[in-house]
Each structure stands twice: as C-alpha cells, then as structure tokens.
Amino acid sequence: MSEIYFWIFFNVFVLLLLGLDLFVFHRKEHEVKIKEALLWSVFWIGLSLAFNLLIYYWKGPGPALEFLTGYLIEKSLSVDNLFVFILIFNFFKVPTKFQHKILFWGILGALVFRAIFILVGVALIAKFHFIIYILGAFLVFTGIKMAFQKSDDELHPEQNPFIVWISQKLPFTKHSVGGKFFTKIDGKIFATPLFLVLIMVETTDIVFAADSIPAILAISKDPFIVYTSNVFALLGLRALYFALAGIMQLFHYLHYGLSVILVFIGFKLLLSDVFHLDMRIALGVVGGILAISVIASLLFPKKDDELPKPQNFDNNLDTDKK
C-alpha cells in the first residue's frame, strides 16, 4: 500500500476520534473531573503506544524508536506548555466547563499549523542541508533561554499584536454567552470573550511550535513519523490538562529538565554530520532527564512563599472595543 494511503487513513482516523470526543463523549458542556481526565489520559497514551507498535511492524525498530522519542519530547514540552494555558484561563476567568471546548478547537487548529510547519521544515532540510545547523543553534539558544525564564511569569495578552488587532476589528460582547464563540444581537454578529481566549490559545501554540518542531526534526526526517508523534502528543493534551491542572506546580523542576533536553537535541543536530548518536541512547537520555526533573520536583517541593501569587485581573483586555 502506498504511503499516501496511510496519510489519508491516519487523518481520517484522527478526525473521527475528535468528532467522537466533541459530539458524543463531550456533547454536553461540563466540568471535567480528575477521574474522567485520568481515564482519558490512559486511553490516549495507550492509543499512542499501540500506534507505536504498528510503526514497529510497518517500518521497523528504527522508525518506531524515532516515534517514541519524538512522542516523549513533544509530550514533555506539552506538559510545560500547560502552565501557560492555566495562566490564560485564569486571566480571562474561563469557567472550567468551557475549558475543554476551547482546548478542543485550539488543538484542532494546532494540528493544521503543525502539519504545515513539519512539511515545510522537512522540505527545507532536504533541499538545504545547512538548515540543520541553524535549527541546532536555535534549540541550544532556546534551551538556555528557557532555563532562565520563569514558568509562572504573568500573562500579558494586551501585548499580543494579533489579540490587540482582532479586538479592535471585531465587535465583542462584554460578557461570555454560555460556551459560544459568537452570538447575534439585534441582527448583528458579535464575538464573545471566549473567542478571544481561543485566539490566545491558538497563537500561543504557534509560538510553542517554534520549539517543538525543530526538536522533533532533530529526531527524525520522516514527515510521517514527525507528524504522527506530534498529533498523538497533542490529542492527549486536553485530558492531561485536566488531570494535572491542580498539581502542575509540583513539577517546578520539569522546566529545567526540558531546557536541558532542548540543548541536548540541539547539539545532536549540530554534530550530526560528524557523530551519529544511537536512537536508543537518545531515548534513554531524554527519559532519564525527565525522570530526574520529576523526582527532584517531588523531593524538593516549592515553599509556600515561592508559589506564584494570584494575578490582578483589573487590566484584562477591553472586549467592548468595536
């Protein structure tokens, strides 16, 4: 069977899963409890590992290791990104029962953008080999920058150019209208604050992709492996958010572990022409760094006075702008 059919089958399968998730299992808006979130997390992780097994029998042990390593990196970066989603939802005071819907459409958009980034990235690397050195240097720089960046920095949506632009161009309602992104008032369509939150989540993920796509391209040049590992990491992101939202601050050293991983992957790219690192070793290094950062977070928890303070919501965006 030609690989194009696997691309078609995979995307149809993903759309089917997303459709079942939104229109069947989460048809009614409700607050996702920890037990439900954990069960969904187990389902998505199990499905990812089953697909990894399929890759093993279809493409062999090498691509299967690449998928697993890429999935682990993407999943780990996604966990760190959940901190930002928490800040966004807190800043805009989004009720818990509407957060799943926003994450669903945000992740659906992220899948489209990441597919474009991956295909463009693979094509550029295939045509211009020197780009791997640019990506490697970028990952090293990003990793070092991440190490000195606080994960609980305050959110400033008013500094997001796209948010400012769209809040000036579209008429917005002052308050949310149920879980709707748009509503009609006196025959005129208005966007709601929830739509602004969705745009914020979407643009934030595009920024995240600047880190994650180069990292996964350092692991594999096979666009199908890169794309599918990204997709599976994103599919389970919503469930993971609700499962970990209450205990996210426990993993305060994960931030530093991820920065080390990005630096490691960056040097792997920079030295790829003179030194080939076995994928099993790369997987072991990534897994080891993640394990150490999680264990260190649990053994040396933050003190109460080190925890992030609640934000002042008085300066939220003025959604009355027309």
Uncertain regions: pLDDT < 50 for 5+ in a row?
305-322
Question: How large a portion of the residues is in β-strands, by DSSP E?
Answer: under 5%
| End-to-end Cα distance | 53 Å
Number of helices: 11
User: How does the overall form come out from the CA principal axes?
Assistant: globular
The H-and-E topology, N to C, reads as HHHHHHEEHHHHH
With strands numbered from the N-terminus, the spatial order across the biggest sheet is: 1-2
The helix-and-strand class reads: mainly alpha
Helix content: 55-70%
Total beta strand runs: 2
Overall pLDDT confidence: 78
User: How would you classify the quaternary structure?
Assistant: single chain
C-alpha-based Rg, rounded: 20 Å
The largest sheet is: 2 strands, antiparallel
Report on the structure:
This protein is mainly α. It contains 11 helices and 2 strands, in the order H-H-H-H-H-H-E-E-H-H-H-H-H. It has a two-stranded antiparallel sheet. Helix 1 runs parallel beside helix 8 (223-235). The radius of gyration is 20 Å and the shape is globular. Mean pLDDT is 78; it is low at 305-322.
Q: Notable features of this structure?
A:
322 residues, mainly alpha, two-stranded antiparallel ribbon, globular, disordered C terminus
Write a brief caption for the model.
By secondary structure, the protein is mostly helical. The protein has helices spanning 3-25, 34-59, 61-91, 96-127, 131-147, 161-169, 193-217, 223-235, 237-244, 254-270, 279-299; strands spanning 182-185, 188-191.
